[in-house]
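Researcher: Good morning. I'm working through a list of sequences from a screen, and I'd like to move beyond sequence-only analysis. For each chain I'm collecting a predicted structure so we can compare shapes side by side. This is the next one on the list. No need for commentary yet; just the structure.
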Amino acid sequence: MRLALVAIAALLLALPAIGEQDAEVRVDFSNPGLYPSSWTLVLHPDGTGHFHAEAGTRPPNYPDSILPGKIDREVHLSREFTDHIFKTVHDSRILQNKCESHLKVAFQGTKKISYSGPDAQGGCEFNYSTNKEIQELGDSLLAVGATLIEGARLELLYQHDPLGLDKAIEYVVEATGDGRLQQICTIRGILERLEDDPKVLDRVRKQAKMLLARSGS
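Model: Good morning. Structure tokens for this chain:
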């Protein structure tokens, strides 16, 4: 009897965690002026998730360099960053579909943020929001997407154009510093390979090491 009660108590304690993992934030981004032109990030409360990008057609006059096309991979964001995302989605007006400012501003790409879970469901789509929390959330999520795309680009350069890594990783360092790229922990794998490979340029290895330190590795 006692064992049965212990088992029931353990199950009851586990229920909130199970319910939490049923929750999901999904971000769909599209901008035909970029390459890849669209991507989706699905994120769970523990920071795990999945990233999928479709290349589309490379826009005219787009930089002629090695760029990733389709990207399909599991990701893991920091718990602090993930907690902030879920909290903002709940506390802002995203669940009430009140994001878009309808102002005449430059097109920044269509961002659709949605939430589904045992406690609520909802979402909204916008180009630009006058709600500071929502706009900053959109910017942060775009920075995560950009980081994953740059990580895929580093992998391609590592395989096919090692000399191109020098300029590419210099951009990653610069963009990480000013916030255009965020959650460098999501591309830790390629950075570790660059740091450990003696055939890679020494300055590239040093910059990879610095980025790993920033990621908290």
